[in-house]
Amino acid sequence: MTPNTDSNATSPIAAIHPALASALAAKGYSALTPVQMAMTNEDHRDVDLLVSAQTGSGKTVAFGIAIAPTLLGRDAHFNAAAAPLGLVIAPTRELAVQVQRELDWLYATAEVRTATCVGGMDMRNERRALDRGAHLVVGTPGRLRDHITRGTLDLSALRAVVLDEADEMLDLGFRDDLEFILGAAPKERRTLLFSATVRRGIAELARAVQTNAVRIETTASTEQHADIEYQLMLVRRDEREHAIINTLLDSDSTSALVFCHTREAVRHLTARLANRGFSVVSLSGEMAQSERSNALQSMRDGRAQVCVATDVAARGIDLPNLDLVVHADVPSNPETLLHRSGRTGRAGRKGVCVLIVPENRRGAVQRVLALAKLTATVRAAPGIADIEARNRRRIIDAAASAAEPAGAEADFVAELLDRAGPERIAAAFLRQQLAAHPVPEELSPLPAAALDNKTARARRSADKNASVREPHGPDMQDGVWFTISLGRKQRADPKFLLPMICNAGGVTKRDVGKIKIDDTETRFEISADKAAGYAKQIKQPGNLERGIMIAPAGEMREKPRQAKPKFRQDGKPTRKPQAPSADRGKTSKHKSRKPKRPA
What we know:
The chain is an alpha/beta fold. The protein is built from 19 helices and 19 strands. Among the domains are: 18-217, P-loop containing nucleotide triphosphate hydrolases (Rossmann fold), CATH 3.40.50.300; 462-552, 2-Layer Sandwich (Alpha-Beta Plaits).
């Protein structure tokens, strides 16, 4: 977790236990998030709490603040570690480890000793840590129950229990384990239950394990997470994966999480993205703990930029710098949507959440958004022209921001310039940069009726403006018209076409006049003094990508198709006579007859 400096979280930390206040000050905290501030209320010091707050709002520090007076009293330090005083239960190993790390620095001044009990780890090491003594134990329900059953975890001295992400633990089927663990704890204890939502199951659990709990809701139910921008991206049913690829390519994100409903969908999409050149890992239920750990570490250290996961597998994970969440499958309920989206926009960082929605599912996702009290911007998926324009800007910015050569570099640069020249060096750099990015997918434009009125009007205006570009540079009254074989159906755009037109004929932007985009081709003007040279240059091979043609206007015509002769020169038919469909695959000298229909 990083310090939060949001202007809405402006409360001081003077009301916190002194041992924790010094740790927070050393960490750079000058303000608290709403849920953290709620935990400093004197009226909440000795009571059970049922807390709902947005995922990523700093809940670990919040419950650390809440239980400090219960665990430490007025002491500045813990006494010698024996039986645990505090227990934190988390739904997944990753979240438990993350919580333990947070509590370690938060209680460092108090000389805390912590232990973790989580599935997938060596139980003998955990047993030895418990035998040495721990003030705080953090664990997952199944492993904690195992230790209690084996007699290696003593809860007799417990003063406070925290259930973190309680709604997720219920979804994962841990209710029996939770009731068993809390049944083994002293009745005279504090129980703090933290959950993103307080639905019926959570309320029932609270009544079963808490006593007169105080309900705390730190975010109004109608308030949207200010740090997450929601986008609803409408696509054709058969182009969902293409839209996912283009969304990843069009984003400035360095770390993205893509959610699918099933393990099979995760495997399929991971393979698809890997084949397209993305550095991608996956998380799903059948993976071993070591595989999960390696995948998450790859995301944390930057070796992978995309993680494809199921809902359950990604619960509780915290990936630093995660600024893009993509819903490849439409979330089925508001809780799933909120849990998925809460992986980004954490602790003051901004994030984007994109829902890839086939046209026929728009109504369903709008209902889920309404139930979650979220507002999303409706947009079309980015096209080839959008992504290529973005790539060009990135390449130019990268070159323009490069430092001047120094030391041994200067000599090498001078040699490169002398032997290759600036144009060839720039071309090599361009090709290298373009090769580093996967190629975008072609998407069919959605009808304007599929978008909302505001977006449809914007698209119609953009299409209109893209059809004709005003003359650039000198007057083109005597300009010569040429045609390029790209049009609206190929998502042609002036920003994308102009560099291609210039490169193909060796001219500059000042030599290009109007650009008129039609359905299948685009006409453009070249200044009269450059037209002859341009016409000669475009005939040279290698100036255009394969399949693209430029010619003087009026000369680009498809050759008429000539009917193939029925017989070759030797008198034999060009094709063998084909048998009726019922008899294909059979050889017969006689013409087959259709069976008569029964009377």
